[in-house]
Amino acid sequence: MDHSHMDHGGMDHGDMGHGGGSAMPEMCNMNMLFTWDTNNLCIVFKQWHVRGNISLMFSLLAVVLFCVGYEWLRGFIRKYETEAAQKAEAVPTGEPVTESTPFLGSTTEHRQVNIEKRSHAVKTALYAIQTFYAYMLMLLFMTYNGFVMLAVAVGAGLGYYFFGQSTSAAKETACH
């Protein structure tokens, strides 16, 4: 059907986004397939909008540093767990039971339980932070942008190089 003969004079084209002097805001390009295109690339948040080569470079550097931070966190957690286990083992046990032993157990047993509870609470918080961090990394990778994906891999490699001396290079493919 040909509509060229119709009078569109009463229509306000500015309301429809068809010109009228109003510029369309840049929209985030959301890819579901692998791409190297960086036009309107948004990384995780619409506010993290890559608008040029300089912002792309700073964004990729931020992704690398974010991934290095994740490997640092993993190393920190391993170190904390080792130190917590050593602290728990350092508490003397095996006090002889005598007539003066308290009915509810010794203060050493209470101290041991308190150390274990505190350690478990800290490890729980660290686990939650690590899991959140891992899923954020997954979201970075799921931009499906080759540059961002490479930045994740480079950051993970650098992080392992600097903070993974005490761990195996073999890693499960789970995201956390």
From TrEMBL:
Superkingdom to which the source organism belongs: Eukaryota
Keywords for this protein: Copper, Copper transport, Ion transport, Membrane, Transmembrane, Transmembrane helix, Transport
Main location as per UniProt: membrane
Pfam families named among the record's database cross-references: Ctr (PF04145)
Bilayer topology annotation: Multi-pass membrane protein
Coiled coil: none
The keyword Repeat is annotated on this UniProt entry: no
Transmembrane parts of this sequence: 54-73
Localization (cell): Membrane
InterPro entries, alphabetized: Cop_transporter
Similarity comment: Belongs to the copper transporter (Ctr) (TC 1.A.56) family. SLC31A subfamily.
Protein name in UniProt: Copper transport protein
UniProt source species: Apiospora arundinis
